[in-house]
Amino acid sequence: MKKIILSFLIVGVVSFSISCEKTADVAAGKAKFDQNCAPCHGSSGKGDGPAAAVLNPKPRNFTDQAYMSKRTNAQLSAVIKNGGAANGFSAMMAPWAGVLSDADIANVVAYVRTLK
């Protein structure tokens, strides 16, 4: 019985995750990215924004497909929401939970996934 309940729970979480990804708004994500992320990550997501010159380590290059292909949307969302330090990365990546809603974060992740 526990296995059946666990199976339904897993299917539900995966289904919810997939449905959230399908409803993400890339254009809205780009607008939030340009407003909040581009100062560090750059307008094209290469980690070369104006603030990057004074940051150590440098911001993530989202066009690095070798790295990005190994990261799930949930991982990217967690770093955006809770910051780098909370996820084993640089504390220079601030948490955005107080600024961006979960929908905003999903939209930003969807936009970041378009960067090549």
Provide structural commentary.
- With 116 residues, the chain is mostly helical.
- It has five helices and no strands.
- Helices cover 54% and strands 0% of the residues.
- Helix 4 (73-82) packs across helix 5.
- Residues 11-20 have low confidence and may be disordered.
Can you lay out the helices and strands and say which pair or pack?
Elements: H1 2-23, H2 26-41, H3 65-68, H4 73-82, H5 102-112
Helix pairs in contact: 2-5, 4-5
What's the pLDDT, averaged over the residues? 89
Gyration radius over CA: 16 Å
Indicate the proportion of strand residues. under 5%
Number of discrete helical segments: 5
Counting DSSP E segments of at least 2 residues, the number of strands comes to: 0
Quote the distance from N terminus to C terminus. 46 Å
Question: Which blocks of ≥5 consecutive residues have pLDDT under 50?
Answer: 11-20
Main β-sheet, in a few words? none
Helix content: 40-55%
Structural shape: globular
Helix and strand content put the structural class at mainly alpha
Instruction: Give the ordered list of helices and strands.
Output: HHHHH
